[in-house]
Amino acid sequence: MEKKYCIVGGGLVGSLLAVILARRGFRADVWERRPDMRDGTIEGGRSINLALSHRGFRGLELAGLDEEIRKLCIPMHGREVHDENGGTRFMQYGKDGQFINSISRGGLNQLLLREASKYPNIKMHFDERCDDINFRNKEISFYNTTTHQNTREKYDMIFGSDGAFSAVRMALMKSERFDFEYRQDYLQHAYKELSIPAAADGGWRLKKNALHIWPRKSFMLIALPNLDGSFTCTLFLPAKGEVSFEHLTTKDSARQFFTKYFPDALADMPTFDDDFFANPVSDLVTIRCNPWYIENTATLIGDAAHPIVPFYGQGMNAGFEDCTYLAQLMDAHNDDWHAILPAFNQMRKPNADAVADLALRNFIEMRDLVADPHFILKNKIAQKLAELFPAQWQTQYSLVTFSDTPYAEALSRGINNNEILEKIVAENPSIESRLGDTEFMMGLEKWVG
Fold first, then answer.
1. Segment 164-198, tens digit of pLDDT
2. Which of 283, 308, 340 is the last residue of a domain?
3. Is the same domain home to 28 and 110?
Protein backbone atom coordinates (compact mmCIF):
# COMPACT_ATOMS: atom_id res chain seq x y z
CA MET A 1 0.00 0.00 0.00
CA GLU A 2 1.31 3.45 -0.95
CA LYS A 3 2.46 5.49 2.03
CA LYS A 4 0.99 8.94 2.61
CA TYR A 5 2.88 11.74 4.34
CA CYS A 6 1.60 14.86 6.08
CA ILE A 7 3.44 18.20 6.09
CA VAL A 8 2.03 20.63 8.66
CA GLY A 9 3.07 24.11 7.53
CA GLY A 10 3.44 25.35 3.99
CA GLY A 11 6.11 27.94 4.70
CA LEU A 12 9.58 27.89 3.23
CA VAL A 13 10.79 24.61 4.71
CA GLY A 14 7.46 22.81 4.39
CA SER A 15 7.02 23.73 0.74
CA LEU A 16 10.63 22.79 -0.10
CA LEU A 17 10.19 19.47 1.68
CA ALA A 18 7.02 18.85 -0.33
CA VAL A 19 8.92 19.30 -3.60
CA ILE A 20 11.75 17.02 -2.44
CA LEU A 21 9.30 14.29 -1.38
CA ALA A 22 7.34 14.68 -4.62
CA ARG A 23 10.48 14.24 -6.71
CA ARG A 24 11.17 11.02 -4.82
CA GLY A 25 7.71 9.74 -5.72
CA PHE A 26 6.05 10.11 -2.32
CA ARG A 27 2.47 11.19 -1.80
CA ALA A 28 2.08 14.09 0.62
CA ASP A 29 -0.57 16.52 1.85
CA VAL A 30 0.50 20.04 2.85
CA TRP A 31 -1.70 21.73 5.48
CA GLU A 32 -1.21 25.47 5.96
CA ARG A 33 -3.09 27.68 8.44
CA ARG A 34 -2.68 30.83 6.30
CA PRO A 35 -4.68 31.63 3.15
CA ASP A 36 -3.39 30.51 -0.22
CA MET A 37 -0.63 32.93 -1.22
CA ARG A 38 0.26 31.35 -4.56
CA ASP A 39 -1.55 33.97 -6.61
CA GLY A 40 -2.60 36.43 -3.94
CA THR A 41 -1.24 39.12 -1.68
CA ILE A 42 1.72 38.32 0.51
CA GLU A 43 1.26 39.19 4.17
CA GLY A 44 3.54 42.10 5.02
CA GLY A 45 4.84 43.82 8.09
CA ARG A 46 6.56 40.87 9.75
CA SER A 47 9.00 39.75 7.07
CA ILE A 48 12.68 40.30 7.58
CA ASN A 49 14.23 39.89 4.15
CA LEU A 50 16.18 36.68 3.82
CA ALA A 51 19.88 36.17 3.18
CA LEU A 52 20.09 33.02 1.08
CA SER A 53 23.53 31.40 1.07
CA HIS A 54 25.36 28.15 0.32
CA ARG A 55 23.51 25.82 2.68
CA GLY A 56 20.15 27.03 1.43
CA PHE A 57 21.10 26.54 -2.19
CA ARG A 58 22.11 22.94 -1.49
CA GLY A 59 18.55 22.22 -0.39
CA LEU A 60 17.14 24.04 -3.41
CA GLU A 61 19.34 21.93 -5.68
CA LEU A 62 17.51 18.83 -4.44
CA ALA A 63 14.29 20.46 -5.63
CA GLY A 64 15.84 21.43 -8.97
CA LEU A 65 15.09 25.08 -8.24
CA ASP A 66 18.46 26.63 -7.44
CA GLU A 67 19.02 28.29 -10.81
CA GLU A 68 15.48 29.63 -11.05
CA ILE A 69 15.72 31.12 -7.56
CA ARG A 70 19.08 32.76 -8.26
CA LYS A 71 17.19 34.99 -10.69
CA LEU A 72 15.17 36.37 -7.76
CA CYS A 73 18.25 37.23 -5.72
CA ILE A 74 20.40 40.32 -5.32
CA PRO A 75 24.02 39.52 -4.37
CA MET A 76 25.31 41.28 -1.25
CA HIS A 77 29.11 41.27 -1.13
CA GLY A 78 29.44 42.79 2.33
CA ARG A 79 28.13 45.13 4.99
CA GLU A 80 27.77 48.84 4.34
CA VAL A 81 28.10 50.33 7.82
CA HIS A 82 26.47 53.75 8.36
CA ASP A 83 27.87 55.81 11.23
CA GLU A 84 26.05 58.48 13.21
CA ASN A 85 27.60 61.27 11.15
CA GLY A 86 26.32 59.94 7.85
CA GLY A 87 29.60 58.34 6.80
CA THR A 88 29.81 54.77 5.49
CA ARG A 89 32.37 51.98 5.55
CA PHE A 90 32.21 48.76 3.52
CA MET A 91 33.18 45.45 5.15
CA GLN A 92 33.56 42.59 2.67
CA TYR A 93 32.03 39.25 3.70
CA GLY A 94 34.56 36.86 2.23
CA LYS A 95 36.87 36.47 -0.73
CA ASP A 96 36.24 38.26 -4.00
CA GLY A 97 33.30 36.59 -5.69
CA GLN A 98 31.71 35.38 -2.44
CA PHE A 99 28.38 36.88 -1.46
CA ILE A 100 25.07 36.23 0.23
CA ASN A 101 21.76 36.83 -1.54
CA SER A 102 18.88 39.09 -0.60
CA ILE A 103 15.54 37.56 -1.47
CA SER A 104 11.93 38.26 -0.55
CA ARG A 105 10.53 35.75 1.95
CA GLY A 106 7.05 35.99 0.45
CA GLY A 107 8.24 35.75 -3.15
CA LEU A 108 10.33 32.68 -2.39
CA ASN A 109 7.46 31.03 -0.51
CA GLN A 110 5.11 31.67 -3.44
CA LEU A 111 7.54 30.07 -5.87
CA LEU A 112 8.04 26.98 -3.70
CA LEU A 113 4.29 26.52 -3.18
CA ARG A 114 3.61 26.86 -6.88
CA GLU A 115 6.31 24.34 -7.65
CA ALA A 116 4.95 21.85 -5.11
CA SER A 117 1.47 22.27 -6.63
CA LYS A 118 2.74 21.05 -10.02
CA TYR A 119 3.18 17.52 -8.72
CA PRO A 120 0.09 15.26 -8.84
CA ASN A 121 1.24 13.45 -5.69
CA ILE A 122 1.14 16.69 -3.63
CA LYS A 123 -2.17 18.06 -2.36
CA MET A 124 -2.38 21.53 -0.83
CA HIS A 125 -4.80 22.64 1.91
CA PHE A 126 -5.06 26.27 3.09
CA ASP A 127 -6.81 28.04 5.99
CA GLU A 128 -6.30 24.83 7.95
CA ARG A 129 -5.31 25.02 11.61
CA CYS A 130 -3.77 21.95 13.21
CA ASP A 131 -5.88 21.24 16.31
CA ASP A 132 -4.82 17.83 17.58
CA ILE A 133 -2.47 14.91 16.88
CA ASN A 134 -2.83 11.34 18.11
CA PHE A 135 0.71 10.07 17.56
CA ARG A 136 -0.15 6.52 18.63
CA ASN A 137 -2.77 6.22 15.89
CA LYS A 138 -0.94 8.56 13.48
CA GLU A 139 -4.07 10.70 13.22
CA ILE A 140 -4.17 14.47 12.90
CA SER A 141 -7.08 16.92 13.08
CA PHE A 142 -7.51 20.24 11.29
CA TYR A 143 -10.03 23.07 11.54
CA ASN A 144 -10.74 25.20 8.48
CA THR A 145 -10.94 28.84 9.55
CA THR A 146 -12.98 29.78 6.47
CA THR A 147 -15.53 26.95 6.17
CA HIS A 148 -15.44 26.06 9.91
CA GLN A 149 -15.23 22.37 9.01
CA ASN A 150 -13.20 19.79 10.93
CA THR A 151 -11.08 17.20 9.16
CA ARG A 152 -9.32 14.17 10.61
CA GLU A 153 -6.78 12.24 8.57
CA LYS A 154 -4.42 9.31 9.12
CA TYR A 155 -0.86 9.36 7.79
CA ASP A 156 2.21 7.15 7.76
CA MET A 157 4.50 10.03 8.68
CA ILE A 158 3.98 13.60 9.95
CA PHE A 159 6.44 16.44 9.41
CA GLY A 160 6.02 19.48 11.64
CA SER A 161 7.32 22.45 9.64
CA ASP A 162 4.88 24.95 11.11
CA GLY A 163 7.22 27.58 12.45
CA ALA A 164 8.43 28.95 15.74
CA PHE A 165 5.14 28.42 17.58
CA SER A 166 4.54 24.99 16.10
CA ALA A 167 1.29 23.12 16.80
CA VAL A 168 3.10 19.85 16.10
CA ARG A 169 5.75 20.69 18.69
CA MET A 170 3.03 21.56 21.19
CA ALA A 171 1.37 18.22 20.55
CA LEU A 172 4.73 16.49 20.98
CA MET A 173 5.19 18.25 24.33
CA LYS A 174 1.85 16.83 25.49
CA SER A 175 2.51 13.35 24.10
CA GLU A 176 3.75 10.20 25.79
CA ARG A 177 7.30 11.18 24.90
CA PHE A 178 8.13 11.90 28.55
CA ASP A 179 11.78 12.84 27.92
CA PHE A 180 10.88 15.93 25.87
CA GLU A 181 12.87 19.03 26.87
CA TYR A 182 11.82 22.57 26.01
CA ARG A 183 13.22 26.05 26.58
CA GLN A 184 12.39 29.43 25.05
CA ASP A 185 14.28 32.68 25.50
CA TYR A 186 13.07 36.07 24.34
CA LEU A 187 15.44 38.93 23.63
CA GLN A 188 14.64 42.19 25.34
CA HIS A 189 14.66 43.59 21.82
CA ALA A 190 11.82 43.51 19.32
CA TYR A 191 11.65 44.47 15.64
CA LYS A 192 9.58 46.49 13.22
CA GLU A 193 9.63 46.40 9.43
CA LEU A 194 10.03 49.64 7.46
CA SER A 195 10.90 50.40 3.84
CA ILE A 196 12.95 52.57 1.54
CA PRO A 197 11.20 52.83 -1.83
CA ALA A 198 12.91 52.87 -5.20
CA ALA A 199 14.32 56.14 -6.48
CA ALA A 200 12.37 58.20 -9.00
CA ASP A 201 14.26 56.53 -11.86
CA GLY A 202 13.48 53.04 -10.50
CA GLY A 203 16.98 52.52 -9.14
CA TRP A 204 18.26 51.96 -5.61
CA ARG A 205 18.70 54.90 -3.23
CA LEU A 206 21.53 53.09 -1.39
CA LYS A 207 24.37 50.87 -2.57
CA LYS A 208 22.60 47.96 -4.21
CA ASN A 209 24.90 45.01 -3.53
CA ALA A 210 25.30 45.36 0.21
CA LEU A 211 23.53 44.65 3.48
CA HIS A 212 23.21 48.08 5.11
CA ILE A 213 23.64 48.43 8.87
CA TRP A 214 23.21 51.46 11.11
CA PRO A 215 24.80 50.17 14.39
CA ARG A 216 23.96 52.17 17.50
CA LYS A 217 25.37 49.91 20.27
CA SER A 218 22.17 48.77 21.98
CA PHE A 219 20.02 48.88 18.84
CA MET A 220 20.32 49.02 15.06
CA LEU A 221 18.62 49.44 11.71
CA ILE A 222 19.33 47.17 8.73
CA ALA A 223 18.26 47.34 5.08
CA LEU A 224 18.32 44.64 2.37
CA PRO A 225 17.79 45.35 -1.34
CA ASN A 226 14.84 44.16 -3.43
CA LEU A 227 14.65 43.64 -7.19
CA ASP A 228 12.21 46.53 -7.65
CA GLY A 229 14.74 49.09 -6.36
CA SER A 230 13.34 49.22 -2.84
CA PHE A 231 14.93 48.15 0.44
CA THR A 232 13.23 46.21 3.20
CA CYS A 233 14.38 47.77 6.48
CA THR A 234 14.17 46.36 9.98
CA LEU A 235 14.54 48.31 13.21
CA PHE A 236 15.81 46.22 16.15
CA LEU A 237 15.20 48.09 19.38
CA PRO A 238 14.56 47.22 23.05
CA ALA A 239 10.87 46.67 23.74
CA LYS A 240 11.07 48.64 26.97
CA GLY A 241 13.45 51.10 28.60
CA GLU A 242 14.76 54.59 28.12
CA VAL A 243 15.37 54.13 24.38
CA SER A 244 12.73 51.63 23.27
CA PHE A 245 9.58 50.95 21.32
CA GLU A 246 7.41 51.75 24.33
CA HIS A 247 8.27 55.44 23.96
CA LEU A 248 7.67 55.61 20.19
CA THR A 249 3.91 55.94 20.37
CA THR A 250 3.30 58.97 18.15
CA LYS A 251 4.44 60.03 14.71
CA ASP A 252 6.36 62.90 16.26
CA SER A 253 8.23 60.69 18.74
CA ALA A 254 9.10 58.13 16.05
CA ARG A 255 10.30 60.81 13.64
CA GLN A 256 12.36 62.53 16.35
CA PHE A 257 14.00 59.20 17.20
CA PHE A 258 14.98 58.57 13.57
CA THR A 259 16.11 62.17 13.12
CA LYS A 260 18.48 61.70 16.05
CA TYR A 261 19.85 58.23 15.28
CA PHE A 262 19.18 57.49 11.59
CA PRO A 263 18.83 60.84 9.76
CA ASP A 264 20.33 59.59 6.49
CA ALA A 265 17.96 56.60 6.41
CA LEU A 266 14.96 58.77 7.30
CA ALA A 267 15.74 61.05 4.35
CA ASP A 268 15.10 58.06 2.07
CA MET A 269 11.82 57.04 3.75
CA PRO A 270 9.04 59.21 2.30
CA THR A 271 6.34 56.91 3.73
CA PHE A 272 7.95 56.64 7.17
CA ASP A 273 5.06 58.10 9.19
CA ASP A 274 2.56 55.62 7.74
CA ASP A 275 4.91 52.59 7.71
CA PHE A 276 5.98 52.96 11.31
CA PHE A 277 2.46 52.54 12.65
CA ALA A 278 1.07 50.25 9.95
CA ASN A 279 3.54 47.48 10.77
CA PRO A 280 3.52 45.64 14.11
CA VAL A 281 6.26 45.31 16.71
CA SER A 282 7.28 41.64 16.78
CA ASP A 283 9.18 39.54 19.29
CA LEU A 284 12.55 37.80 18.86
CA VAL A 285 12.72 34.31 20.32
CA THR A 286 15.14 31.38 20.48
CA ILE A 287 13.60 27.98 21.20
CA ARG A 288 15.56 24.82 22.00
CA CYS A 289 13.86 21.45 22.33
CA ASN A 290 14.81 17.78 22.26
CA PRO A 291 14.07 15.22 20.93
CA TRP A 292 12.43 16.39 17.74
CA TYR A 293 10.69 13.11 16.91
CA ILE A 294 8.44 10.40 18.29
CA GLU A 295 9.01 6.78 17.25
CA ASN A 296 8.61 6.44 13.46
CA THR A 297 5.57 8.71 13.47
CA ALA A 298 6.57 12.39 13.37
CA THR A 299 9.46 14.83 13.39
CA LEU A 300 9.94 18.55 13.68
CA ILE A 301 11.96 20.32 11.02
CA GLY A 302 13.06 23.91 10.34
CA ASP A 303 11.79 26.61 12.69
CA ALA A 304 9.46 24.15 14.37
CA ALA A 305 12.57 22.33 15.65
CA HIS A 306 14.99 25.23 16.12
CA PRO A 307 13.67 28.82 15.92
CA ILE A 308 16.52 31.33 16.13
CA VAL A 309 16.94 35.08 15.98
CA PRO A 310 17.74 36.40 12.48
CA PHE A 311 21.13 38.01 13.03
CA TYR A 312 23.32 35.51 11.17
CA GLY A 313 20.90 35.15 8.27
CA GLN A 314 20.85 31.38 8.81
CA GLY A 315 17.29 30.55 9.90
CA MET A 316 16.05 29.60 6.44
CA ASN A 317 19.43 28.21 5.41
CA ALA A 318 19.47 25.92 8.46
CA GLY A 319 15.92 24.79 7.68
CA PHE A 320 16.78 24.03 4.07
CA GLU A 321 19.88 22.18 5.29
CA ASP A 322 17.56 20.04 7.43
CA CYS A 323 15.87 18.98 4.18
CA THR A 324 19.26 18.15 2.63
CA TYR A 325 20.32 15.91 5.50
CA LEU A 326 16.88 14.32 5.80
CA ALA A 327 17.05 13.34 2.11
CA GLN A 328 20.54 11.88 2.60
CA LEU A 329 19.32 9.81 5.55
CA MET A 330 16.34 8.58 3.54
CA ASP A 331 18.80 7.28 0.96
CA ALA A 332 21.14 5.78 3.55
CA HIS A 333 18.34 4.00 5.44
CA ASN A 334 16.07 3.11 2.52
CA ASP A 335 13.21 5.26 3.86
CA ASP A 336 13.14 3.38 7.18
CA TRP A 337 11.82 6.03 9.58
CA HIS A 338 12.70 3.93 12.64
CA ALA A 339 16.34 4.55 11.70
CA ILE A 340 16.05 7.93 10.00
CA LEU A 341 14.43 9.96 12.78
CA PRO A 342 16.89 9.27 15.63
CA ALA A 343 19.80 9.71 13.22
CA PHE A 344 18.38 13.03 12.00
CA ASN A 345 17.92 14.24 15.57
CA GLN A 346 21.44 13.20 16.57
CA MET A 347 22.95 14.84 13.49
CA ARG A 348 21.09 18.13 13.52
CA LYS A 349 20.35 18.97 17.17
CA PRO A 350 23.95 19.98 18.17
CA ASN A 351 24.25 22.11 15.05
CA ALA A 352 20.86 23.73 15.65
CA ASP A 353 22.05 24.74 19.12
CA ALA A 354 25.29 26.07 17.64
CA VAL A 355 23.60 28.22 14.99
CA ALA A 356 21.31 29.62 17.69
CA ASP A 357 24.41 30.67 19.64
CA LEU A 358 26.02 32.07 16.48
CA ALA A 359 22.95 34.21 15.78
CA LEU A 360 22.88 35.63 19.30
CA ARG A 361 26.60 36.44 19.15
CA ASN A 362 26.20 38.09 15.76
CA PHE A 363 23.54 40.43 17.13
CA ILE A 364 26.18 41.99 19.37
CA GLU A 365 28.56 42.17 16.43
CA MET A 366 26.08 43.86 14.12
CA ARG A 367 24.65 46.42 16.52
CA ASP A 368 27.89 47.31 18.30
CA LEU A 369 31.18 45.73 17.24
CA VAL A 370 31.08 46.68 13.55
CA ALA A 371 31.65 50.25 14.75
CA ASP A 372 34.40 49.30 17.20
CA PRO A 373 37.98 50.03 15.99
CA HIS A 374 39.42 46.96 17.72
CA PHE A 375 36.86 44.67 16.06
CA ILE A 376 37.46 46.33 12.69
CA LEU A 377 41.20 45.75 13.02
CA LYS A 378 40.72 42.07 13.89
CA ASN A 379 38.39 41.70 10.93
CA LYS A 380 41.03 43.17 8.58
CA ILE A 381 43.68 40.81 9.95
CA ALA A 382 41.36 37.83 9.62
CA GLN A 383 40.58 38.67 6.00
CA LYS A 384 44.29 39.06 5.24
CA LEU A 385 45.13 35.72 6.85
CA ALA A 386 42.39 34.03 4.82
CA GLU A 387 43.89 35.56 1.68
CA LEU A 388 47.50 34.55 2.47
CA PHE A 389 46.81 31.14 4.06
CA PRO A 390 43.58 29.82 2.52
CA ALA A 391 44.29 26.21 3.43
CA GLN A 392 44.99 27.00 7.07
CA TRP A 393 42.70 29.90 7.96
CA GLN A 394 39.03 30.49 7.34
CA THR A 395 36.95 33.12 9.05
CA GLN A 396 33.97 32.00 11.08
CA TYR A 397 31.68 33.92 8.73
CA SER A 398 33.04 32.02 5.72
CA LEU A 399 32.69 28.68 7.51
CA VAL A 400 29.06 29.43 8.36
CA THR A 401 28.02 31.11 5.14
CA PHE A 402 30.14 29.74 2.30
CA SER A 403 30.75 26.11 3.33
CA ASP A 404 29.10 22.93 4.57
CA THR A 405 31.13 22.95 7.79
CA PRO A 406 28.80 21.85 10.61
CA TYR A 407 27.59 24.84 12.60
CA ALA A 408 29.02 23.42 15.83
CA GLU A 409 32.48 23.17 14.28
CA ALA A 410 32.21 26.66 12.78
CA LEU A 411 31.33 28.06 16.21
CA SER A 412 34.26 26.30 17.88
CA ARG A 413 36.73 27.38 15.21
CA GLY A 414 35.42 30.94 15.36
CA ILE A 415 36.04 31.13 19.09
CA ASN A 416 39.57 29.78 18.56
CA ASN A 417 40.17 32.27 15.73
CA ASN A 418 39.20 35.16 17.98
CA GLU A 419 41.64 34.05 20.66
CA ILE A 420 44.42 33.94 18.06
CA LEU A 421 43.53 37.38 16.69
CA GLU A 422 43.58 38.87 20.18
CA LYS A 423 47.10 37.49 20.73
CA ILE A 424 48.30 38.75 17.34
CA VAL A 425 47.05 42.27 18.09
CA ALA A 426 48.53 42.22 21.62
CA GLU A 427 51.98 41.11 20.42
CA ASN A 428 52.05 43.35 17.34
CA PRO A 429 50.89 46.86 18.39
CA SER A 430 51.85 48.35 15.02
CA ILE A 431 50.09 45.71 12.93
CA GLU A 432 47.45 48.06 11.52
CA SER A 433 50.14 50.00 9.65
CA ARG A 434 51.73 46.78 8.39
CA LEU A 435 48.74 44.98 6.90
CA GLY A 436 50.07 45.73 3.43
CA ASP A 437 53.57 44.43 4.29
CA THR A 438 53.46 40.95 2.76
CA GLU A 439 56.71 39.80 4.31
CA PHE A 440 55.53 40.80 7.77
CA MET A 441 52.10 39.23 7.30
CA MET A 442 53.63 35.98 6.01
CA GLY A 443 55.51 35.85 9.30
CA LEU A 444 52.18 35.34 11.05
CA GLU A 445 51.94 31.83 9.61
CA LYS A 446 52.99 30.40 12.97
CA TRP A 447 49.64 31.53 14.35
CA VAL A 448 47.54 29.73 11.74
CA GLY A 449 49.53 26.54 11.15
1. 999 999 999 998 778 999 999 999 999 999 999 99
2. 283
3. yes
Output the pLDDT for position 39: 79
* CATH number of the domain that residue 269 is part of: 3.30.9.30
- What is the Cα–Cα distance from 291 to 68, expressed in whole angstroms? 35
Q: What is the CATH number of the domain that holds 13?
A: 3.50.50.60
Whether the predicted pLDDT of 361 surpasses 80: yes
Provide the sign of the torsion angle of the four alpha carbons 36, 37, 39, 41, taken in this order. Answer: positive
Contacts of 310 (CB under 8 A, 6+ apart): 48, 284, 359
Q: Are 338 and 348 found together in one domain?
A: yes
The helix (run of H) or strand (run of E) holding residue 168 is: helix 167-173
C-beta separation of 13 from 7 below 8 A: no
Q: What is the pLDDT of residue 40?
A: 72
Segment among 365-374, 378-387, 425-434 with least mean pLDDT? 365-374
Residue 311: which domain range?
A: 4-74+102-183+285-361
Say yes or no: 432 and 407 in one domain: yes
**Residue 91 belongs to a domain:** no
Predicted confidence at residue 428, as pLDDT, reads 93
How many residues does the structure list for the chain? 449
| The one-letter amino acid at 160 | G
Rounded Cα gap, residues 384 and 159, in angstroms: 44
Instruction: Report d(CA 57, CA 53) in Å as an integer.
Output: 6
Angstrom distance (rounded) from CA 388 to CA 429:
20
Judge whether 85 lies within some domain.
Answer: no
Q: What is the pLDDT of residue 67?
A: 96
CB burial of residue 151 (10 Å; 0-12, 13-18, 19+): middle
For the cut 70, the answer to whether the pLDDT of residue 301 exceeds it is yes
Does residue 289 share a domain with residue 277? Answer: no
Report how far residue 216's alpha carbon sits from residue 220's, in angstroms, rounded to the nearest whole number.
Answer: 5
CA 326 – CA 17 distance, rounded (Å): 9
Distance of CA 408 to the CA centre of its chain: 17
pLDDT of residue 367: 83
Q: What is the DSSP letter of 435?
A: T
Residue 306 has pLDDT above 80, yes or no: yes
| Sheet strands side by side (includes 100-103) | 50-52, 100-103, 74-76
- 48 pLDDT band, cuts 50/70/90, is low
